[in-house]
Design brief:
Keywords: Membrane, Transferase, Transmembrane, Transmembrane helix
Number of strands: 4
Strand content: 5-15%
Radius of gyration: 16 Å
Family: Belongs to the bacterial sugar transferase family.
Largest sheet: 2 strands, antiparallel
Pfam family, one: Bac_transf
Helix content: 40-55%
Protein name: Sugar transferase
Number of domains: 1
Structural class: mainly alpha
Distance between the termini: 27 Å
GO molecular function: phosphotransferase activity, for other substituted phosphate groups
Shape: globular
Order of helices and strands: HEEHHHEEHHHH
Number of helices: 8
Length: about 190
């Protein structure tokens, strides 16, 4: 686990970078929300409850990329993604509103990706260390699985593959990230993500 001093350093870095980038991100996010609203016929700002630090739920914000309400499987996501939505998802621009999650303290720039209930909140034993840090916009597992949608679509049973191959690997990657955390590594992960 991160020490109290490391947690403070990580949070100060998160806030400083978010405040620095906010003026450059604000107008593009507003424009993307308007375009997504026109494209999907729904509110262009999508929110969903995710599992955060210490297992607490928080509202994660994204640009809406899908039509309809139920997006339970990777197949549905592929079928319901609009052309603009697919473009945004491929470039990860749909994630830009999460700068507000970072400013609010529910997320960090780097850390385990926040999952829907039913995954991180059900971890046990040593694996629960994943819940000791704020979830991140990017991180080592996110970088490794940057083409996760394609990988899952290539499987006969995407849900089974996710639950038995990808998810356990992400847990291990995230545990190692937390055990070996450093600010320099966070900066490297950010640069690799860009």
């Amino acid at each position: 686990m991160l020490t109290p001093n490391q947690i403070i350093i990580k949070r100060v870095f998160d806030l400083s970078l978010a405040v620095l980038l906010l003026p450059f991100v604000l107008i593009p996010v507003i424009l993307l929300i308007i375009l997504a609203s026109l494209d999907t016929g729904q509110n262009g700002l999508f929110s969903q409850y995710r599992v955060g630090r210490n297992g607490r739920l928080f509202k994660l914000y994204k640009i809406r990329t899908l039509k309809g309400e139920a997006h339970d499987s990777i197949i549905e996501i592929k079928q319901q993604a609009t052309q603009l939505g697919s473009w945004l998802r491929k470039r990860k621009l749909d994630e830009l509103p999460q700068i507000w999650n970072i400013l609010a303290g529910s997320m960090s720039w780097v850390g385990p990706r926040p999952d829907v209930p039913g995954y991180a909140d059900e971890l046990s034993g040593e694996d629960r260390i994943v819940l000791s840090v704020r979830p991140g916009l990017t991180g080592p597992a996110t970088i490794k699985y940057k083409d996760e949608d394609k990988l899952l679509l290539a499987q006969e049973d995407p849900q089974e593959y996710n639950d038995n191959v990808i998810w356990p690997d992400k847990v291990e990657i995230n545990k190692q990230y937390i055990k070996n955390w450093s600010l320099i590594k966070d900066i490297k992960y950010l640069l690799a993500s860009v």
